[in-house]
Amino acid sequence: MTTSVIHHMVQEVAKIFNTTPSAICSANRRRENVLARNIVTDIAYNDFLAAAEAKDYDPLLDNLWTIAQAEMDSWAKDGAFPYDKELLNLLMQTGNMKAMSRETGIPYRSIIYSIEQAKAKIKTAIEANGYTGLSHPD
To answer: What pLDDT is attached to residue 90?
Structure first.
């Protein structure tokens, strides 16, 4: 959606609600301005979704995630606790290894080492499935 289309849409919605385009775009809390802003936002969002759906879906990330999950599941052999997998999941939730160390009581350097080892194992598994870099297998 181009800027000119959005500008035109705001003008048309302003006519419908008998207000000004600048009032729609302002932080004015009048009911008609809020409704007009919601309509413009919904139209723009629906246009964005339609454009996203029109593109071909690329399953690359889904494929890589499936490989990574299978690799992490293989670490818990014979009922052992998947320590590295749980650390990776915790890292995805917290996004910070120092916070993980504080929350779990596991030494920071131990977390770094375990995460690096886990990432290397996942990378090896992904490459073993024919993915190098970010390209599809041949």
So the answer is: 86
